[in-house]
Amino acid sequence: MPEKKLYEYAVIRVVPKVEREEFINVGIILFSKKANYINVLIDLDEERLTLFSSEIDCEQLRENLDAFVRIGKGDRAAGPIAKEDVPSRFRWLTAIRSSMIQTSRPHPGKADDLDVAAELLLKEYVG
Length: 127
What we know:
Blueprint: E1 5-14, E2 24-32, E3 37-42, H1 46-52, H2 58-73, H3 86-93, E4 101-103, E5 107-111, H4 114-125
Antiparallel strand pairs: 1-2, 1-4, 1-5, 2-3
């Protein structure tokens, strides 16, 4: 039986008004150093988000979240961070920031299939 892969994950959040510290979960970043794996999944419910805060520019937000996905994939056109190795990209994506897009602290887990684990986490934390 193959050994389960150790991973770390963080939840991507949109914080419309940073000073209020309220947020909506919109995605997952899953990383495994041993498997040299990173996956960024986004599920942005714009209707729910605009009910939460009518001031959000959903088009700009989608562009910014797309940058997270492209950096995760190592898309060299996404800038210098995307050219870094997988662990460095994960650390940059999960760095503490006071912007509208934030992440939870990383949490550990183990899975046989990292793609399946990412999808399950997205469903659990984002819906």
